[in-house]
């Protein structure tokens, strides 16, 4: 049985991913069957969904685990869950328009943000086979999405517009927070944040300040003022590898970095380690490297003697836990975390958003949000770019 606040149409507009490849594999249709909420689920009318780099990587099959040239998506549970056609989009904001069996009708009309995870079990403190809406199940690049009621968190903060709330979605913020909790980041510690201008990077800067850690951002100089305003202690120019470590130590007053949040990989990883082991005699904790991305290259060459002799602890991070999601939602609703929204695109213009995302210029900071065409005037137009494609 389904209880609905209003009549839900039989079909909806959605962007379908039809296979691995370029943006032509994304097909916009207006005759897709509207999902219905099952037991314990809510049906959400989507008003905004943040775009994440994982959307592109999954589309292009850039999650190899056995060979560098492998074209695939990840299958942490052993069986691939990305099947085609698939509706992508993980960080979903909208309003509950129908509820399934076992869900109170009091939730009808509620605005909320989806915890994007497809959890393998009910455990709150661990997530060993991460998957997510938009990958293993249909997500928010559509007019409606069905999801578990306990993962659609009500957000009542009136200061947050729907597009801004989507920009604070769990794909970035939960990944960032799990990077920090995995590495045991504590108040007062110096944290180096690579890829600082993206969604996870801007989340890391804010989360460091929330818990009392001190974030040092790695980015381009022309983004320094925005990152400093967001909470970065200093912004270190990412160019010129030979002098990178010296620039970091100058920013810290000569003190080593306590923990690195690495979203870049490639040849930068070795330099990041150098910022932590420059003077081991002044450290009070082990050097910690938390990895959740490889935008600078999927292969890093590191001498293992540097890892074990300096006792560098390495943490691979993908997604997070139910406990972390609940804490983040509370911080978002309270206003402790702030949105960093770059621009909004119509759902029908997702091709343009994808092209913009991979070719964005130096003025890019924060998140791109996708808004269904029918919701554009109310939730997207105010955040449109000032140029057309």
CATH-derived architecture of the largest domain = Alpha-Beta Complex
What is the approximate shape? globular
Low-pLDDT stretches are none
Domain count: the total is: 2
State mean pLDDT (0 to 100 scale): 93
The counted number of beta strands is: 17
The CATH homologous superfamily of the largest domain corresponds to: Medium-chain alcohol dehydrogenases, catalytic domain
Series of H and E elements: EEEEHEEEEEHHEHEHEHEHEHEHEHEH
The Rg value, from CA coordinates, equals 21 Å
The profile of the biggest β sheet is: 8 strands, mixed
N- and C-termini, Cα separation: 44 Å
Molecular structure report:
With 389 residues, the protein is an alpha/beta fold. Strand 13 (259-262), helix 7 and strand 14 (288-291) form a beta-alpha-beta unit. Helices cover 25% and strands 23% of the residues. It has 2 domains: 3-168 and 339-383, Medium-chain alcohol dehydrogenases, catalytic domain (Quinone Oxidoreductase, Chain A, domain 1, Alpha-Beta Complex), CATH 3.90.180.10; 172-316, NAD(P)-binding Rossmann-like Domain (Rossmann fold). The model has no long low-confidence stretch (mean pLDDT 93). The strands form 3 sheets. Strands 1, 4, 6, 7, 8, 9, 16 and 17 form an 8-stranded mixed β-sheet that branches. Strands 12-11-10-13-14-15 form a 6-stranded parallel β-sheet, with helices on both faces. A 3-stranded antiparallel β-sheet has the order 3-2-5, with no helix packed on it. The protein is globular and about 65 Å long. The longest helix is centred in the middle third of the chain and has 13 residues, at 170-182. The protein is built from 11 helices and 17 strands.
